[in-house]
Specification:
10 helices
């Protein structure tokens, strides 16, 4: 199951933007990398210019303040990059064949927790910006909601049809699975907790399988 980083998708999205000069593309990509690694406040104009390989004057030629730069950086994330990342995950879920509940849970949890680990600083930026802008929040929620209300429920329904999953209401099962995944995700993103991912996933899968397997 693929787990392309947000930064990789973002770089492609910026490169494909036709109305942006090449040097400004370099600036935006450098900003995202630096904001994610050093933080917005700690990143200086000199840092951005050095990372982008341009002069400091070029950095602010199109964007007059660092706040404008931040807005320019995050807008493609919400409008292009996050929908692409959600689509990749959705397509992977639909392509896989599951012979057991564990076959669905283990790669799915590993994919999303690996994604959270690799992209945690950028995800923090996304949530901070979305919290202050209803439009950005809507753009963030829509692709995620599509996966949660369509793709994963479809997989759950197919597992129930094959008697690989307890015959409960799909939304109830989804809540249990999401609570485990979101719990680990929050620890990774919000609290920077470091733990053995494989061990944590094995334990989560064991717990969910015991609770969600049909009675024999």
């Amino acid at each position: 199951m693929a787990s392309t980083t947000i930064q990789s998708f973002y770089s492609e999205d910026i490169d494909s933007t036709k109305d942006l000069p090449q040097k400004q593309k370099q600036v935006l990509k450098a900003c995202l990398e630096l904001f994610a690694s050093k933080g917005f406040e700690a990143t200086t104009t000199a840092d951005i210019a050095d990372k982008a390989g341009v002069s400091q004057g070029t950095v602010y030629k199109r964007f007059k303040t660092k706040e404008q730069l931040l807005q320019a950086v995050v807008q493609p994330l919400f409008s292009k990059t996050i929908p692409r990342a959600a689509k990749e995950f959705s397509e992977d879920l639909n392509q896989f064949k599951y012979d057991s509940l564990a076959d669905f849970l283990r790669p799915t949890l590993k994919n999303r927790l690996t994604f959270a680990t690799e992209n945690k600083q950028i995800i923090k930026i996304l949530f901070m910006q979305a919290a202050n802008d209803p439009q950005l929040l809507s753009e963030l929620v829509i692709p995620v909601k599509r996966v949660l209300t369509t793709t994963i429920p479809n997989v759950i329904d197919k597992l129930k049809e094959r008697h690989l999953l307890v015959d409960w209401d799909t939304s109830r099962i989804l809540e249990y699975v999401l609570s485990i995944g979101a719990g680990f995700g929050a620890q990774i993103i919000l609290f920077d907790r470091k733990f053995d991912l494989d061990t944590a996933i094995d334990q989560a899968v064991e717990f969910l399988v015991k609770g969600l397997s049909p009675e024999k």
